[in-house]
Amino acid sequence: MPPKKGKKPPAHKLCAALDPGFILKDLKKKEWMIGNAIGSGGFGLLYLADDASKSTVKDDAGYVIKVEPVKNGPLFCEIAFYQRAAKSEDIDKWRKKTKLPFVGIPPYIAHGLHGSGDNGLRFMVMPRCGTDLHKTWLKLNKKFTRTTIAKLAIFMIDALEYMHSMEYVHADIKGANILQGYKDPNNVYLVDFGLATRYMIEGTHKEYKADPRKAHNGTIEYTSVDAHKGAAPSRRGDFEILGFVLVHWVAGKLPWEEKLSDAQKVMELKMAAMKDPKRFVKSSCPSDMPDEILKYLVIVSNLEYEETPDYNKLRNIFKSFLKSTGT
Q1: How confident is the model at residue 74 (pLDDT cuts 50, 70, 90)?
Q2: CATH class, range 130-324
Q3: Catalytic residues
Q4: Is 96 assigned a ligand-binding role in the annotation?
Q5: Which residue from 1, 165, 272, 298 lies 20 to 30 Å from 307 (Cα-Cα)?
């Protein structure tokens, strides 16, 4: 089962299933053909899709379409992120600037509305990706090797640095939201931007303000201490979340796994973990202490709410580990 959310989501509902061959027209009047359903994500149904000029949507189609009732909110938020921060030209510009061969953020393709009233649909066209890492981790008996984790950490730091450069934070990093590339499974993408939000408005960072009405938002296993307190998501929060994911991947468990029904207790245990990262990592991994993850968590635990993380320093921790293993 995918990790549970910290707060019970609003009563959103999935839309009625669409039959293969159904045509959707995006806002630029381009037509897309629906193929077979391949699952659901968040509150939206997922379908294979392709250009409607083709006679059918084949099993190797390169696109998917996420569809939800127009009255729902998550896909609206996700589309806003894609339009503002994930245009192909912006990703390419960043990739060239940073001299990276790959940045794991899927580019915006298209979106639109279909129908009207209570039966109206909102949809978004996305590049097709492969298997999510949560499923892979489960198949491997809840254990990734330290080498694999180091490579994945670098991918995620690269993706988060790009997002943060666009003044957005993700706020829900987890294996289920990290997908392998469909054509190249050695690349991974950070997806599902339903909780993505701007941490800066016109160049000014949002102030830290705990709001009990927003407390414990996100996926309870991983969400940050700030989110538990109801503060707006931040860059340090993204890296704290990633840190919990890395420990989970290497240890196969987290100290608060048996307390997920008590969000307050989970928050207290996370606060203790970030106050003493060495004790947290050592108790989670008694037989094989991952020094690289400890070094990462020590840096993250000292970040201020509005501080710009040292992305290179975080990345180099894992690059140095890989170099030491001859990878």
Answers
A1: confident
A2: mainly alpha
A3: 172
A4: no
A5: 272
